[in-house]
Amino acid sequence: MDKKKCPQCKNLISITSPTCLYCGRPNKFITKSYVNKKWNQYDNKNLFNDMFNTKYFVFILLIITTITVILSN
């Protein structure tokens, strides 16, 4: 495992670790894309796909189709 020295506390840390285990300093250069990739789970999804995955939308759709079938008879 490759290690490097933390610039702040001078302890050895792994290159792949996101922060220093001793002082908490970020190991990687923090950019907006790095933060979005780590914290925003819905970054690449749009609202239309999320709407179809909800239980409420399916329930409302079922009620609307039932009412239209009853009224058409």
Description:
The chain is built from three helices and two strands; from the N terminus they run ββααα. A two-stranded antiparallel ribbon has the order 1-2. The chain has 73 residues and is mostly helical. The longest helix is centred in the last third of the chain and has 18 residues, at 55-72. It has two domains: 1-30, no CATH class; 41-73.
Amount of beta strand:
5-15%
Strand order, main sheet: write it out. Answer: 1-2
Rg (CA only): 25 Å
Strand runs, count = 2
How many helix segments? 3
How far apart are the first and last residues' alpha carbons, in Å? 72 Å
| Largest β-sheet summary | 2 strands, antiparallel
Order of helices and strands: EEHHH
Structural class: mainly alpha
Helix content: 40-55%
From the structure provided, what is the oligomeric state, counting identical versus distinct chains? Answer: single chain
Q: What's the average pLDDT?
A: 79
**Which stretches are poorly predicted, pLDDT < 50 over at least 5 residues?**
none
Question: What's the domain count?
Answer: 2
Overall shape: rod-shaped
In brief, what are we looking at here?
Helix content is about 45%, strand content about 10%. It is mainly alpha-helical and about 70 residues long. The chain starts with a strand and ends with a helix.
Key structural traits:
two-stranded antiparallel sheet, 73 residues, single chain, mainly alpha
Present the secondary structure layout.
Blueprint: E1 3-5, E2 12-14, H1 32-39, H2 47-52, H3 55-72
Antiparallel strand pairs: 1-2
